[in-house]
Amino acid sequence: MKVLIVGASGTIGKLIVKELSPRHAIIEAGKHKGQYQVDITNEDSVRQLFTQVGKVDAIIAVAGNVHWGSLQEMSADQFKIGLNEKLMGQVNLTLIGQHFLNDGGSITLTSGSLSDDPHVGGASFTTVNASIDGFIRGAAVELDHDRRINSVSPNVLQESWDVYGGGVPGTEPVPGEKVALAYRKSVEGHQTGQTYRVW
Amino acid sequence: MKVLIVGASGTIGKLIVKELSPRHAIIEAGKHKGQYQVDITNEDSVRQLFTQVGKVDAIIAVAGNVHWGSLQEMSADQFKIGLNEKLMGQVNLTLIGQHFLNDGGSITLTSGSLSDDPHVGGASFTTVNASIDGFIRGAAVELDHDRRINSVSPNVLQESWDVYGGGVPGTEPVPGEKVALAYRKSVEGHQTGQTYRVW
User: Fold this and answer.
1) CB contact, 8 Å: A22 with chain B?
2) pLDDT tens-digit map of A98-115
3) For B75, phi and psi rounded to 5 degrees?
4) CA–CA separation, B113 vs B174, rounded Å?
5) What is the three-class DSSP state of B146?
6) Residues A121, A70: contact at Cβ < 8 Å?
7) Which residue ranges of chain A lie beneath pLDDT 50?
8) Does the predicted TM-score (pTM) go above 0.95?
9) Residues whose CB falls within 8 Å of the CB of residue A102, separated by 6 or more in sequence, listed in order
């Protein structure tokens, strides 16, 4: 399959490339790295990406920032960062990418365990991750021609625990390889509207 | 208790007023109607509302538009309507309202059954409603001084079935009185981080 990975150079992205590349033709995209550069918050940039890449069998998105910080001090602008970047970035890839997705193809987005396991400082993450899991449920009933959409919801990876683990005390970091397997299930399987929780 | 209801003149809002007014001092607010006018998408307007109203024991939000339409044809701008109005409107009321909420007070937001029961045309609703249920889970672990936050997630009301029922075929409309009871549970109860599903 021809698989487009947006965010391919990140910690999770690299592991997905490793997991999928033995069996698929991978196209790597990213904000600054990879074969193609794309700003997923910009519809024109996303449209340009797909015009260059052409039709694909799978779209994987693992990109987008979210603001971490106290609810008491959070501003609307800080709250909107995650909506504009992680949510709308992945929604843009879906709304535009659906028209470049072959029959039977799949879209796999990335949410995260904070959706259901809230921690202090993470209110925007909880909101955004829940919205992405919601979006794939909503989109799944509308995609036709056997095209599918799922999300992968990881906890903090073992590989990133030193950086992010402090925010989710008492949770168990997950091996990156296990997270990458969830993307493989979405791409190579036949399920749709599912959130693969890796926590 | 002093209870601020934003969206008090709508179908659900009126039923909440009816349910709560025998026991509480109700302040009605709305975009165009009620004692106070507020544009919940505008932080300054929300701040002005609370400056005028002062401290309250409960904030109820039942307001905000969302775009209904085919995923195939949906634009990012259409998708953002619900994020800017229903989600950020209620988030603005929470981020600003938390500083005007008495100890032990509550915030009750409104999501909807499409979060978990997707229908064709409703991808943006599914996303926005799931995001609101996520937001209250995230915010609940951050509010202190016994302050609480919940969401009420209704299906289409019997009272609105003729208008909206066509979009959710095969579901059972709910009596408006039952929906109003869920807001009462949030205001008068002691739970937090809960989504009261009325479907």
Assistant:
1) no
2) 999 999 999 999 999 999
3) -95, 160
4) 11
5) coil
6) yes
7) none
8) yes
9) A55, A56, A57, A147
The count of CB pairs under 8 A between chains A and B is 129
Is B66 within 8 Å of B81 (Cβ atoms)?
yes
Q: In this complex, is the C-beta atom of A68 within 8 Å of any C-beta atom belonging to chain B?
A: no
Q: Per the structure block, which two tokens stand in for A169? A: 């005390």
CB neighbours of B5 closer than 8 A, spacing ≥ 6?
A: B13, B16, B17, B20, B26, B27, B28, B29, B60, B62
Q: Give the 3-state secondary structure of residue A2.
A: strand
Of A88, A95, A126, Cβ closest to residue B135: A126
Mean pLDDT computed over B83-110: 98
Contacts for B44 with CB less than 8 Å, ≥ 6 apart: none
- Whole-number pLDDT of residue A108: 99
Would you call A76 and B87 a contact, using CB atoms and an 8 Å cutoff?
no
Three-state DSSP class for residue A77: helix
Q: Do B72 and A115 touch (CB under 8 A)?
A: no
Nearest Cα neighbor of B131 from A138, A140, A186 is A138
Task: Show the tokens assigned to B72.
Answer: 């195939």
Long-range contacts of B192-195 (CB under 8 A, 24+ apart): B192/B106, B192/B140, B192/B143, B192/B148, B192/B149, B192/B150, B193/A118, B193/B136, B193/B137, B193/B140, B193/B141, B193/B148, B193/B149, B193/B150, B194/B136, B194/B150, B194/B151, B195/B111, B195/B133, B195/B136, B195/B150, B195/B151, B195/B152, B195/B153
The model's pLDDT over B120-131, given as tens digits with 9 standing for 90+, comes to 999 999 999 999
Q: 């936050």: which residue's tokens? A: B149
Q: Do B76 and A92 touch (CB under 8 A)?
A: yes
Nearest to B172 by CA among B199, B197, B153: B199
Alpha-carbon Rg of chain A, whole angstroms? 16
Q: What is the spatial distance between Cα A134 and Cα B78, in angstroms, rounded to a whole number? A: 17
Q: Is B93 within 8 Å of chain A by CB? A: no
Asked if A61 and A90 count as a contact pair (C-beta separation under 8 A), the reply is yes
CATH 3.30.450.20 fits B2-198, yes or no: no
Nearest-5° Cα angle at B10, B92 to B150: 45
Look at the block and give the residue holding tokens 């698929």. A24
Q: For chain B, which residues make up each domain, given as ranges?
A: 2-198
Task: For chain A, give the longest Cα–Cα distance.
Answer: 48
The ipTM value here is 0.97
